[in-house]
């Protein structure tokens, strides 16, 4: 294994462990606001993963870059899905129009 691949695997592993540690310390009530506030960061991570994929020269590097792109894309899509769900929770309920069928 070359030094560059070993460095990439080390950085990936450390980032994974730090991410798990940070998220596990966030109270459940703050997960949704935290997710919606970090969509821009997820986009930057995705761009970085795509740039890393463009520089991959061997199959292991390509596999790691593919995993990074997949995780980055999942973060972006999940962040927007959670944000959309959160925004639906704060919408005012629909007012009755008087034309609803009687039970």
Number of E-type strands: 0
Distance between termini?
72 Å
Number of helices: 4
Q: Give the H and E element order.
A: HHHH
Largest sheet: none
Helix content: over 70%
Computed Rg: 20 Å
In terms of DSSP E residues, the strand content is: under 5%
Structural class by sheet pairing and helices: mainly alpha
What's the shape?
elongated
Mean pLDDT: 81
Low-pLDDT windows of residues: none
Fold and architecture overview:
It contains four helices and no strands. It is mainly alpha-helical and 103 residues long. 75% of the residues lie in helices and 0% in strands.
Identify the notable features of this structure and list them briefly.
single chain, 103 residues, mainly alpha, 4 helices
In a nutshell, what does this entry contain?
The chain has 103 residues and is mainly alpha-helical. It has four helices and no strands.
Describe the protein's topology.
Elements: H1 3-24, H2 31-37, H3 39-55, H4 59-89
Helix pairs in contact: 2-4, 3-4
């Amino acid at each position: 294994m070359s030094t560059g691949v070993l460095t990439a695997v080390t950085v990936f592993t450390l980032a994974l462990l730090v991410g798990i540690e940070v998220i596990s310390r966030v109270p459940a009530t703050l997960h949704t606001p935290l997710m919606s506030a970090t969509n821009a960061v997820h986009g930057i991570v995705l761009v970085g993963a795509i740039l890393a994929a463009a520089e991959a020269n061997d199959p292991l590097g390509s596999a790691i870059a593919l995993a990074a792109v997949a995780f980055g894309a999942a973060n972006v899509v999940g962040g927007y899905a959670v944000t959309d769900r959160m925004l639906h929770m704060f919408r005012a309920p629909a007012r009755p129009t008087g034309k609803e069928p009687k039970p």
